[in-house]
Structures are given as structure tokens and as C-alpha cells.
Fold this sequence. Notes:
A: MetI-like fold, B: alpha/beta
Amino acid sequence: xxxxxxxxxxxxxxxxxxxxxxxxxxxxxxxxxxxxxxxxxxxxxxxxxxxxxxxxxxxxxxxxxxxxxxxxxxxxxxxxxxxxxxxxxxxxxxxxxxxxxxxxxxxxxxxxxxxxxxxxxxxxxxxxxxxxxxxxxxxxxxxxxxxxxxxxxxxxxxxxxxxxxxxxxxxxxxxxxxxxxxxxxxxxxxxxxxxxxxxxxxxxxxxxxxxxxxxxxxxxxxxxxxxxxxxxxxxxxxxxxxxxxxxxxxxxxxxxxxxxxxxxxxxxxxxxxxxxxxxxxx
Amino acid sequence: xxxxxxxxxxxxxxxxxxxxxxxxxxxxxxxxxxxxxxxxxxxxxxxxxxxxxxxxxxxxxxxxxxxxxxxxxxxxxxxxxxxxxxxxxxxxxxxxxxxxxxxxxxxxxxxxxxxxxxxxxxxxxxxxxxxxxxxxxxxxxxxxxxxxxxxxxxxxxxxxxxxxxxxxxxxxxxxxxxxxxxxxxxxxxxxxxxxxxxxxxxxxxxxxxxxxxxxxxxxxxxxxxxxxxxxxxxxxxxxxxxxxxxxxxxxxxxxxxxxxxxxxxxxxxxxxxxxxxxxxxxx
Lengths: 282, 283
């Protein structure tokens, strides 16, 4: 069977498989509890803790349907997606070469790793105020913080991946007459690739977490009222809904981010599988 | 020195002479002596098997021939060329000495045929298509048809080891260095692999330097068997096995084979006991 055929077959059997129905049942039960919980004040005369304050899924769905037809909602989603992409791609473009350089050169590693390790544990959100001061525009500050979210994860994965390449591969390549550049291109790069995929998949998830928070802080802060010129994005959308008292919209915003994060990780995983075909079986 | 079963015409290159080799890890005072004044010959065009307890330092010796590790003193010669010795502690790795590793070192990200064609392409000896053609032919020759485009991860470990040996032969090495290549295989697969290796040897007549801790394997395969002492390793007993080649598995039940086993088992067992007492762990 060809790769495409196998993929289609897998996709088709996914919807008939036991796994799919188990998952679907779990989500249905979850929604049912949520619905009952949200209506607990009405049904039982008292509100359940926590879930009693949350808008019911039926209301959220209705609101979602309304928002799907609303261009401004898509505008927010678009803005956040672009920021995630920018930050993520910049993190890949800078992080991969940096990680490789640190893995290949002992000297460079010795110089840069201590600095890297001090900066790495700083949560990206702690950078927000500094980023607002550093960067001339709010957009750039958000992009920078988003970049940081993926950057450290990618670099650390590249270093770890390169260091875990079996020394026998280098010895074998050397014996068979590979030059230093050949070793880099044909051993280190493919050897690191699986780790890059892992770093990217984890990294883009963090990026979504960070972009939303950054939008809330900087977007909400500068605009204050609704429709701030710069801000925008799903984070700002949620914050705005909160300020405006539209609780169903908050939940719609949250779910949108969940879906977006899941989708971007899934896409990266697919690209990763395509780039590392040797890991497919077993 | 003439070796039984090797005609002098085919035995021209790939002879290795190890002269007074010493390898010390760490400092001179607090170091560990891995190889202790080792001297023996690996005759060209024959199979030499080195037997010793795990961790005795025989892999160190192999790494010195391959050029992965240095020697502390002594020298190693390949035919008339000095690989390493005074003034040059570490040999250059090269396509004339290819290692087949203990757990295999096929590149997992390359298909089997890409692995096999790797050497000649790297050395610029052949173009891509020519290298692939030769790789295909050599794989077919070794009974490895049909797995060319699989990844090493998709085939059994026994087949992987055969692909790796074919990859090693692609560069026409003078000597193959096999580092316990069949260690991880079950005994049935092992016996198939032994015959496959002999078949490859009869066809190519490449010199083979084979490391193992399995005495039966050593006597079955080897023209010459070098029994090593436990760490630090040096030859305890060197014997030439006069069972004629080509050999197959019926050799195992012959009286001569049993005699060799009897003659050497005590020596090997003694070293294994010493290694055990010294607390040498599997490496």
C-alpha cells in the first residue's frame, strides 16, 4: 500500500474503531455533566461549586455558532495564529542552528550554555514588562515573548538530540571515509531530526499558551477599553469578553485556543512523521 | 607462517601485526591497564578470532586497529604500513579497516541500500547510480534481495548484521573488524549467521579479525584462535585450527572440534573465573 493509501485507510478506520467511540463517549459524558452542573441552580435549587458558575455547553455552542459567522472573531484567531507562527518560526530559525552549534563545538558550548541555562528557567511571561520596554511596538513585544516560549524548548531538544547520537555512527561514518562536513550533514542532521520534531511539537504548544497570556497583558493594558487598536488576538478576545461580562464568549475563546493548539501540534507531528520515515514502524 | 586452508595466492593483504601493544586508561599512576604488552599476528586472508571474558580489553585492541582509540605504547601494522606506533599513538580511521559493531551501526535514517552504498559515495569512488548498482548486486549476492528499500529498523537483527557486513565489504577493505557481532542473537540465528559469514569469507577472502567470548564460535570460524587473559588482556594461548575450510555445521560434531574445545576450554574457563572474581562487569 502506498503512504497515502495507508494514511487514508488509517483515517477511515479511525472513525469506526473502538478507540474513536470510547473517546466520543468520554466527551459526551463530560458535556452532559457540564450541562447539568451549569444548570444546577435551576435543576436542584443550588449552584454546584465551580461548574455552577460556568456557562452551559448548550449556550456556549450557540455563541460559538454566532461567532463563527462574525468576521471579528476570525480576525482575532488570525492575529493570534500569525503571532504564534512568527514566534515559532523565529524560534526554529534561531534555535536549531544555535542548538547545533552548541552541540558541535565544545568551545561555543562552554561559552553559551551557562548564559542559556540562566535565562532558560525564566518563564516567558516574566519577560513581558521587559519586552514592552525593549521593543518599540506592542506587536514586537508580543512576538518576542511568543518566540521565547518555543525557543528554549527547541534549543534544549536539539542539544540533547545531538548529544545522544550513538558514537558508533560517527565511527562508522569516519571509517567509510566521511569528511567532517559529511558527518555533520549525514549523521548529525538526521540524527537530530527526531529531537527537533519533539521540540517543535512541544514548543508550539507553549507558544499558544504564551501568546494568549501576552495578548491579555499587553493588549488589555494598553487598550483598556474594547477595540484597542494594537492588541487583538484570542487572548485579548477572552479578556475583552470578561470585561464585557460575556461569559459564554470567554468559554468559546478558551475552546478555540484548545483547538488551535491541538491542531498545530497535530500538524507538526504529521510533518515530523513525514520527515522521519524511519521511525514509522515499531 | 602458513595457515591451514589458506592458499598463499589469495592471502596477500590485510595482515595485521600487533607488537607489544599497551593501552592504559587514565593516568600512569592511577590508570587502568586494559591491554598489557600484547603481541600476535593476524594472518592475511584468514579468520583470526580473539576470545576473552567480557570487558577484558579486546575491544580496546580492535578500536586501536580501527583508529578509534590510541595506544599507550607498542605498534600495530597493516601489511607493511604502520597504523600506529611510536610518534603516532592513534591510527587514522579508514575504509581499509571497517568495523562491524557489537550492536550494529547501520544508520537508522537511511534505507538498507543507502547504508550499503554509503562508503563508496563518501569516498567519491563511485557516482550514486554506480554505487547503488553495486550495492544492489552485493546485497542480492548475500541473499538480501527485497529489503533494499526498508529501513534497518524494519528488519530482524540477524538480517541487519548481514546488511552491515555487506556495507563493510562495499569499500573493499583489507580487513574486517567484527566486534562480537552476533552477541545479541539467539543461538539458532547465530548458527545461520556463522555459515553466512563463512560463505562471504570464501567468496571475498577478506582478512577477518573477530572478537567474541564464545569459544565454540571461535573454533568453528577461526583459522587462528587467540585466547586472551582477563584484564589486562594479553594472549594466553594462540592456536591454529587445522580443521579444513570450507567448514559447515557438521564440523561441530567432529572429534577434532571436540579436541580443540577440550584443549582450550580450561584456559578460557580459568580466565572467566578470574574475571568474575575481579568483579568485571559486562561492558
